[in-house]
Amino acid sequence: MESETRELTPPLLPLGRGTRALLVDFSDAIEKAQGPGRNLAHVRGYASKAAEQACRIAGVPTLSRDLHAREVTARDMSDAITLAQFYLAEAARLAEAATVSPEIERAEKLRRWLLDSWPDPEVMARDVVRLGPNPLRESPQARAAGGYSKSTDG
Length: 154
Fold this sequence. Notes:
There is one protein chain. This protein has 2 domains: about 20-100, no CATH class; about 100-145. The protein contains 7 helices and no strands. It has helices at about 20-35, 45, 50-65, 75-100, 100-115, 125-130, 140-145. Helix 1 packs parallel to helix 4 and helix 5 packs across helix 7.
């Protein structure tokens, strides 16, 4: 801590020999995986910080072993990268689970419209096409959202 300003002035903890190469390889792989259509494209905000997070994580075991350590070892960085990859995979998995398909989204619009606006106990696809929410004003979308088939809708 700076004695006059009371600001924290933590010491630098540089990367050891071979450690930087591990980090660069990890960073490059994550960068590629964020490309369009790739497996981390949908979590770019989190993925773009993964290498930085790995550096922070690597500092913890380094300093817990030796509070006066002079550098992060390749072993600590490798372990930190493994942990960062785990958290990144979990972020991707959770983001995928939270994604709602367009079909479910249209079905939910239909459900809300029926609850909020439709007075009758029965509804037909043609009613939805004529009076329903805009995304369902075409027969194929209305039928799909409501589970109708051509033979059951008059």
